[in-house]
């Protein structure tokens, strides 16, 4: 039992789970825009997420060298290196314009992680900025990259999906910020720190209204998608309402991050 627990923790800490969520959103984009399965872009997003998230989480620890690398961190480093090679392999299978957009997302990720400007911390520590940068990165990777690589026209449906995808990721991060409220540096000025937990939950719930009804304005309207989105809104609403600082780490790191995967599975199954 302990060994299974350790494997599960490694699965979460190594960012495999969040990478599956990104993969699921890429597949959702392909479904919504009737794009045939594009393996290079889907796996580029999957392995790129592992590299990006592990870099964000463990870069400072590795550079500070404050403690010896534990076996778990060595395994995560090995997985990240393998994922980096996979990212390089799939990167060169993408369209040239897609590569350019991917580089733009990479720069945004590096800005989020590394202190580029003198006497300034990285963007992750800029007051109130973190949630917007992460949401934009997810929109870029899971929506823009698949469409650009498939030479899709970026018309009305694209902009509607950008807003919806941004709201979805924004709401998911709100749950994380509520749960991490006691541990977050007050200078981060996360949404719960600025407006309180109750108003943060209300904000998240109100944002789900335009998320749902924007679907009606798409040119390529799919009626069944309304039912799937209704289930998604209900699930995310429950996660928001019942989130608090006393929740287990698995509440956010597993269950909340499973929402995009569940969304995709609902489309596949129903």
UniProtKB/TrEMBL annotation:
Bilayer-spanning residue ranges: 12-35, 41-61, 73-92, 98-117, 129-148, 163-182, 202-220, 226-243, 250-269
Task: Determine if Transmembrane helix is one of this entry's keywords.
Answer: yes
Q: Which domain of life is it from?
A: Bacteria
Q: Does Ribonucleoprotein appear among the keywords? A: no
Assigned keywords, A-Z: Membrane, Transmembrane, Transmembrane helix
Kindly provide the name given to this protein in its UniProt entry: Prenyltransferase
């Amino acid at each position: 039992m302990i060994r299974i627990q350790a494997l599960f923790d490694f699965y979460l800490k190594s960012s495999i789970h969040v990478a599956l969520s990104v993969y699921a959103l890429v597949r959702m984009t392909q479904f919504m825009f009737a794009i045939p399965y594009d393996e290079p872009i889907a796996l580029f997003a999957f392995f790129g997420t592992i590299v990006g998230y592990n870099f964000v989480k463990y870069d400072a620890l590795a550079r500070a060298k404050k403690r010896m690398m534990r076996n778990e961190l060595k395994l995560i480093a090995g997985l990240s290196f393998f994922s980096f090679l996979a990212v390089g392999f799939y990167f060169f299978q993408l369209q040239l314009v897609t590569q350019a957009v991917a580089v733009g997302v990479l720069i945004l990720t590096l800005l989020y992680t590394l202190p580029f400007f003198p006497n300034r911390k990285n963007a992750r520590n800029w007051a109130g900025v973190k949630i917007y940068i992460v949401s934009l990165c997810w929109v870029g990777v899971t929506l823009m990259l698949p469409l650009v690589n498939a030479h899709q026209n970026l018309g009305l449906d694209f902009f509607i999906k950008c807003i919806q995808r941004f709201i979805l990721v924004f709401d998911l991060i709100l749950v994380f910020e509520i749960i991490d409220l006691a541990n977050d540096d007050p200078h981060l000025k996360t949404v719960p720190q600025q407006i309180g937990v109750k108003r943060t939950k209300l904000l998240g719930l109100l944002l789900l209204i335009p998320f749902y009804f924007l679907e009606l304005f798409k040119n390529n309207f799919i009626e069944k998608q309304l039912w799937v989105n209704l289930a998604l809104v209900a699930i995310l609403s429950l996660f928001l309402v019942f989130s608090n600082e006393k929740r287990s780490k698995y509440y956010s790191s597993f269950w909340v991050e499973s929402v995009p995967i569940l969304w995709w599975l609902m489309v596949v199954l129903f």
